[in-house]
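Notes, p. 3: input format for complexes.
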Amino acid sequence: MTTTDTAVDQPEVVQKDRVVIRFAGDSGDGMQLTGDRFTSETAAFGNDLSTLPNFPAEIRAPAGTLPGVSSFQLHFANYDILTPGDRPDVLVAMNPAALKANIADLPAGGVLIVNTDEFTKRNLTKVGYAANPLEDESLEQYQVHEVAMATLTMGALAETGLSKKDAERAKNMFALGLLSWMYHRPSEGTERFLREKFARRPDLAEANILAFRAGHAYGETTEAFAVTYEVKPAPLPAGTYRQITGNTALAYGIVAAGQTTGLPVFLGSYPITPASDILHELSKHKSFNVTTFQAEDEISGIGSALGASFGGALGVTTTSGPGVALKSETIGLAVALELPLLIIDVQRGGPSTGLPTKTEQADLLQAMFGRNGEAPVPVVAPQSPGDCFDAALEAVRIAVTYRTPVLLLSDGSLANGSEPWKVPDATTLAPVDPNFATEPNAPDGSGEFWPYLRDDDTLARPWAVPGTKGLEHRIGGLEKADGRGSISYDPANHDRMVRLRAAKIDGITVPDIEVDDPSGDADLLVIGWGSTYGPIGAGARRVRALGHKVATAHLRHLNPMPANLGEVLGRYDKVLVPEMNLGQLVMLLRAKYLVDAQSYTNVTGLPFKAEELQDLFLSYLSGVHA
Amino acid sequence: MTTTDTAVDQPEVVQKDRVVIRFAGDSGDGMQLTGDRFTSETAAFGNDLSTLPNFPAEIRAPAGTLPGVSSFQLHFANYDILTPGDRPDVLVAMNPAALKANIADLPAGGVLIVNTDEFTKRNLTKVGYAANPLEDESLEQYQVHEVAMATLTMGALAETGLSKKDAERAKNMFALGLLSWMYHRPSEGTERFLREKFARRPDLAEANILAFRAGHAYGETTEAFAVTYEVKPAPLPAGTYRQITGNTALAYGIVAAGQTTGLPVFLGSYPITPASDILHELSKHKSFNVTTFQAEDEISGIGSALGASFGGALGVTTTSGPGVALKSETIGLAVALELPLLIIDVQRGGPSTGLPTKTEQADLLQAMFGRNGEAPVPVVAPQSPGDCFDAALEAVRIAVTYRTPVLLLSDGSLANGSEPWKVPDATTLAPVDPNFATEPNAPDGSGEFWPYLRDDDTLARPWAVPGTKGLEHRIGGLEKADGRGSISYDPANHDRMVRLRAAKIDGITVPDIEVDDPSGDADLLVIGWGSTYGPIGAGARRVRALGHKVATAHLRHLNPMPANLGEVLGRYDKVLVPEMNLGQLVMLLRAKYLVDAQSYTNVTGLPFKAEELQDLFLSYLSGVHA
Amino acid sequence: MTALDLGLPTIGGLDGVPTTTDKQTAKDFTSDQEVRWCPGCGDYAVLAAVRQFLPTLGIRRENTVFVSGIGCSSRFPYYLNTYGMHSIHGRAPTIATGLAVTRPDLSVWVVTGDGDALSIGGNHLIHALRRNVNLKILLFNNRIYGLTKGQYSPTSEEGKITKSTPFGSIDHPFNPISLALGAEATFVGRALDSDRKGLTAVLGAAAAHRGSALVEIFQDCPIFNDGSFDVLRKGDDADTRVIDVRHGEPIRFGTEGAYAVVRDGFGLRVAKTDEVDEADIVVHDQADLNLAFALSRLSDQDLTHTVTGIFRDVARTTYDDATRAQVNHERETRTPDLQALLNGRDTWAVVG
Amino acid sequence: MTALDLGLPTIGGLDGVPTTTDKQTAKDFTSDQEVRWCPGCGDYAVLAAVRQFLPTLGIRRENTVFVSGIGCSSRFPYYLNTYGMHSIHGRAPTIATGLAVTRPDLSVWVVTGDGDALSIGGNHLIHALRRNVNLKILLFNNRIYGLTKGQYSPTSEEGKITKSTPFGSIDHPFNPISLALGAEATFVGRALDSDRKGLTAVLGAAAAHRGSALVEIFQDCPIFNDGSFDVLRKGDDADTRVIDVRHGEPIRFGTEGAYAVVRDGFGLRVAKTDEVDEADIVVHDQADLNLAFALSRLSDQDLTHTVTGIFRDVARTTYDDATRAQVNHERETRTPDLQALLNGRDTWAVVG
Ligand SMILES: Cc1ncc(C[n+]2csc(CCOP(=O)(O)OP(=O)(O)O)c2C)c(N)n1
Ligand SMILES: Cc1ncc(C[n+]2csc(CCOP(=O)(O)OP(=O)(O)O)c2C)c(N)n1
Ligand code: SF4
Ligand code: SF4
Ligand SMILES: [Mg+2]
Ligand SMILES: [Mg+2]
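Output follows (1956 residues plus iron/sulfur cluster):
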């Protein structure tokens, strides 16, 4: 659907290249929904965008408190952007707690829209405001707009017969309406959305639509706002676009992998933040021959997926870091069994329960080494929400082709963040042949079936599923004789098998890494993996815009690494590895390539900021870091 | 007790510096017991010694088959030795399967003692001997002694009224008697042992003693054996010695740690080979205020230990690799809680169930990284069976002083292997003060208790146990505010806490690594960890004896590493790291110190052989490896 | 070596825990942490009941420990000014076991949810029950995963539409009471979050019981499973659904005891009191395991008939008492001699 | 969207599994792997019985799968020439669940030990039972950990001296039958390793049952728990100990049915047949859960009275049938359109 600007004649219209808006309020204020809707409108309008939801681990902390603040940040632009933005240009604060928790991020001169109704003495005290900041000078440096959103909403809904409480709850739609007016967003989508969401309560649907329109009208009719802004659509590559979150893209990738492999999909999973939505999404798509099983725990989740793989399905399990820890023994079994299995880890802040709703990249080494014995597993990582789709397909290609469990490392910011996604043409997705064994294969012509006889090329073993006559066999976690697969305690055989398993993974064909080095002669290479793609790219753009040279490269494949990586690293004087952990990839690179790669880390539960990386790169370029 | 040689006048007595004997037979033949007794006699005699038991994962595979073969190798000498020996000088084979499985290891000219009674047609066929090897030329190159051990034993016991079956079962004691005669071993110990072991069946005790004596007499009276051998006691450092296995030494170390810390010991454990014996041993020592809890699984094992630690006990959990995998989530919790906890991993062959009764060193990276998030844990490793005692005490020192879980990595060869151990003076063991918190500590003078306020020096937090009035507090796996310890989702706080936890572990005081470089100017440094200490040392001795220079160093502390390690590594042209894995320590060294350390690996489930390492070192010294 | 005969516990669940004569109030047991549950959550009612109940035990606050797993309910320990640990998902019983075994002077409580206790933690729960460790386990059953935003749990009804079951759940649920009884539990009780009196009575009996006590608390989650127990609270027939049982008393319920429980084969059924013989009304016996099991099966879990109160309360040697008895016996009869241990039986001297 | 009503299973446990009319023998079901148990191990008898039993099912060998955990008993799959997996400790039910759900054309068996099933694997076991996945679970109960060389297990008697309990075990054991019944099991049976006939009968009924079937097999471990079930096999009173129950028949046992089981309150007791009224003898009803539970508690686990046969066998929709019904319903009513899925509802075109 192509949309055009629906804005009517209004105050001065200022053209902007990009805008960052942050909606902040109480957990009960519906800020995530508001943000989502604004995002959808923005996507439909054709801007490029990137989002960052941020909410507490509690379902709903006590109203009006600092721990209860929930926010949603959206960055949109008329060119392709890479991050959800460092700092908001506009902050919408629905209560004193939201103001207090977010105001420090608003740069001087920024627009602050405040819902004054909540600025009561009691609410102010609750968060430690001695005086009302709207009444002293503390907000002087901002463009403050005070709007009694609750009052105005209730007023607009007075006729609906809705209870006061229900009416008041629609104030987030009022805010959305106001902002939609300010930024010339289309509104049909939101109205349609509200009608569907409240299909069973048409009164609520109408109320929310009324509130939304009231907000819009408030902007139009009051003279409080001197300007509105326009951000033109972004000239993205031609194609059909939609907005997508990482978790949805992962779920779609799994559904698609079922189609490209022709296998039934079986997901065994136990809910955990921020991975649960993949289970939720997949449970809707049974028509694609996708079965979801909510297991009693993570071990059962992966165990059932492995059992399904043994039976010839595409076994998948989804979790976050603590769940991977629990699954580690079974991952080891999958390594020994050499069966396809996709294990998705949506990383979150750790250690232990950590920060369940925040992002982090600290499970890389767990993915690589978190099992007893030598148990190598391929590891892939998506770099953006939409890229989760491709990463899932790539992980499945490796799992099926090489008969191996594969770990896919997403993270909280990819999972919940969203961006416009160029929808792939489903007919062009590359098929993957599961290539089931159908015949006995013993090289000695005995007519036996040897479950561990390997393909010369891939070193993969045959996948012979129960029900296939003549291929009956037994496999297990004890060491197996090379070829025959029967139990073997022979020392030389064990050494051989350990090396064969390693060689199989090391020999997986992965594409070369591509370097973005516009000038071709940068001294500094910045290399990352996973969700830091956006901030690293944005940081690099900024320093390039300042006239400096910097090369960037991003790893999709953490294990095995691309064949050309050593050569690439060797080409640069300085190699810098920014990570949201204490330096995990950098350790692997140093060990493997013996390059003096430098680590930059930040473990705040939030993505890097473009500015932070710009400064970092500049400091490296200027030689502060020799 | 000091013992002297009891050998009587006999055939020619040949003096030897060292001897390697291997007893091999069916799982039901009692080879482990035979080996143990010969070891005890040898220890009592004052030789230095080292042992290598080797048995199948089944309790008792079918009689007479190759998978059912069980063996025990003993190396003893008149000087301090380091390994159980590469190859036997004497092989005792109780049946054709034992012969077939072991003969390849016997060097030409070696002594082969065969129990001919088992060399029946049926038994020969069972293991694929087309002809009886005792009757063709295939054993020509060995000094073969054919002894009808079962017949002789049954003859000796004819009078006892014992059933044929029971009598026949004593043939291992006959073999022991014969070997004891050949090597002039004392015999009181064995006779006393048998009386105690069969206290409830005195008839069996006497029968076994009779069989033992018959074997001895057989040597004395027949003229089959032209020589006997004498290996003089070894001039070990002065002190009281005993023979000890690694698992026993670990158990004693834990008991001792209870005494040095003054804490009750709580072991929560789930049985697993090769760690179960630690549980068995500790369950005997309740008088030392040691409580053992056989949990329903590994997770409960560590969970209960952590609960006990919270209550002020010394929490310990013991397992092997697959168990560590299961415990990993709880280890992460212990990292977050910052409570003392000792986690013992007796490594075995992997991945997955792998080779449960064989040895390996492939859990180092699991120990380092096998958890979600940044969850650093100190790692220590013993280098010999007796050293397990010291390693346990050192691990507890770190755990208690720094309030942290500590991983101790033993392995199958240390666990079951034995050596003479200089018994420490219990009164000289260094005390460790648990230093429980007793007072509120809030720096703001509020009289509150802050559970995460750190010691300036160690960065350890206070250990305040329930029952202490005024220090009531709640801790958990969510991120905690620095100092106060309440739940915090604050980005900057999380980053700080992640770094504080890392800094605490990095800051642990560990002794410098010592280098053994006799000439002081070797070019090649060989560095290892864990049970490779013996073979590396033995290999180095051999090449030094050949006039070459090689330096060796062995890491007790894998995390944090000794402060001088970087400097040490930098001193040598070549650094070589032999490991029983695919190169785990070498990865850590290369990443951390950026030295081009080379890896040598062998993953057979068996310890390195001294000869193998000698050849390796020579190839490095000769420049084959540039 | 033979096993020590400990006999049956003749002491109560709190014996050995230091007492205090100081006046303690609910406020003393309230920590400074802000309570972070949703408005209307049933957890608030339970918290209030527990805060009021704990001071009545007369034990020292510092000798009380709450251990929880993960879930909304598992935040409970933060809100009590006692010692506490918010551990990991499903593992609280293991941690509490280690603590209870080593510290007889503590009163140890476990707080857990239906997912925490019965899904991921099911094994630890049943093992704690069979061992009869002196723990009080409060199972907050809201028949939903609250903290992860509304997936069905092992106690959710069949057919339930949740985030993970858009076509309806097809898992047959556990009956936590039956499960506990099958797992050798010595104390099993049940109460409604909103029934302060009933809840307090069950908590009191649990505390007095020496051994593992499982208390199932029906708890409302207004956000993801709103009103799931409303039929037991309001509506015309609420009082014909709740069957509160009391040891030694005939089981009658409803307004003026209009209904009664009578035997039906090996099981039970509900009858109108005036239609049955007084003598046929079952008298509750909390020592009768078969009766307790039958009570747990009185109706499907559709809440048609819901027994509250104490299903079972019997004495059996506790694991922790028995362990300590073995340790103490050894400590009393043997002097630990570390040097002798290290030496073992066979040493030899090297004179150097 | 509403839940599909599947109703009760009207099909048998093997329906959907391809059959064969080829004559199959025990030998066909024997793999080429050497059996590696100790001489005299009860596992041999069970293996022989199973090898003889499987061909009688008439299903194709290649559609039979045995999944096991870890333990001596868990080596079982290696010795059968079917498909098989020797997995990891305690997790076989999870693997078998994934397999059974995705492959209705397979007959899926789980082999497990008392440690594997009830210690580390307890949670997966009870969840498989409550879900009623179409799996047959053979629990080899030798009341000891065999493979790890003789530690006590969750079914070991109190006071047992083992490697890990030199002073005697203090764990109160599980009663596997009670536990399974408390966990909503639809089929629970028990047999002795040496009783080929009884064992085969229970296996046959388990195979025919659609849903999870738990079969406890008392198995002797001559190495670490020698003769633990000997009182049920030999000795004067062996036949007064074993109570073999049969649906619809009065429960009598002993020589010439000298003993009978009669009701005792909500439970049961053993009486001399000639001392009780014929009518008082309990008639076994495998659909009566309360009776089954009472049978499981007839005596302590000291084997004084040991019920064998089928405690319970009732029909309940299986998890796997229900899951497949949901999937198939969707597949039949909606054409999967990947492009439509990827597009979602809101797309926009960029023309470049
Ligand atoms: C190992 C692990 N798996 C999964 C989770 C995610 N998780 C947190 S709470 C929860 C279930 C909560 O349900 P319940 O125990 O019923 O508690 P409630 O929130 O309903 O009180 C889950 C699945 C986790 N934190 N850790
Ligand atoms: C994760 C893990 N923990 C522990 C073990 C060690 N282990 C192997 S079998 C077993 C118990 C065996 O007992 P049971 O299940 O009763 O089988 P049995 O040998 O008696 O037939 C244990 C503890 C293991 N292999 N893996
Ligand atoms: S989600 Fe439900 S259980 Fe959790 S706090 Fe909110 S109302 Fe309570
Ligand atoms: S140890 Fe026991 S259970 Fe295991 S094979 Fe031997 S006899 Fe059988
Ligand atoms: Mg719940
Ligand atoms: Mg067993």
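Confidence is low (pLDDT under 50) at residues 1-8 of chain B.
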